[in-house]
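It is worth pausing here to work through a concrete case rather than discussing structure prediction in the abstract. The textbook approach is simple: state the sequence, then state the predicted structure, then interpret. We follow exactly that order.
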Amino acid sequence: MKSKGGRHFDARTTLAAACLVLSACAGQPEKEFEQPQNVSPTVSKLSQDLTQYYAQLERRLILRGLMRTDGGGPDTPFTKEDLMRDFQALAFYGEYVSGQGFTKATAQPADLSKWEDPVRVRLLFGPSVSAKTRASDRQTVTALLDRLTQVTGHSITLVEEDSNFDVLVANEDERYDILTRLQDQRHPIGHQSASLLKTIPKELQCVVLAYSSSPFSKKYIQALAIIRAEHPPLLRKACFHEEIAQGLGLSNDSPRARPSIFNDDDEFALLTEYDEILLNILYDPRLRSGMSLNTAAPVLRQIINERYPPET
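Step two, the predicted structure:
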């Protein structure tokens, strides 16, 4: 989950959570979630205010030269040591204190977490999301999943049912009811994490929770991302990029990671070349879920040295 430290809270968010902490030990729901009908419900003043707030936020960020979509360039060089440092910070430390909601952690160590089974992503929409916007979101997510599959070598596909990574796009009026319905259908979200997601501070633009099969496992088996329907186009696309990417296992943020979306500074809106390298490293089979930093460090060094051999 991302927030803006002591300045302001402008970024997209990711919270990686263990099964025990967020009561997410259930299996697949017995009944698939029924997509709401595409109607035009009355939108509350709160949701309207949020729409205006995020539109203004996006404009301010762009005017400041942030929310770049170029993926990095000559102005953003990086070295092998940058990769080593940033991968360790992103993959082996948690951003939030386990069991304490959105409480920021200070250098909280964590073992490596990733998916071993194919990732099956399902989009769920609230009634306020128009057919046109749904089609655009599906196009965005399909392209992103194809890119992530190519980068990681791991199967990541968009599905209509039998999902293990749900992405909910809903406005402030709808999120509570939809999460309640998911709980009623025995979705692995669990009551504690559902309660956390039903009231999200406006400073948090979006969030993803990833669940393991037990308190002792670091293998992800389920994830749920929340994307605000109030977002304007670029913030919305940025949320898809960051939450789905961070839901694969790079769950922390680092102020030194650049060029990267795994950073609180909003310089980049969309997945960068650097992010692709980090995700490629994460899904190298030599790095296994449950590895500690001490165990993984020499393996990580070997992978990076192979990717960037010394010049002769």
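Step three, interpretation. Residues 131-152 form the longest helix (22 residues). The longest strand covers residues 219-228.
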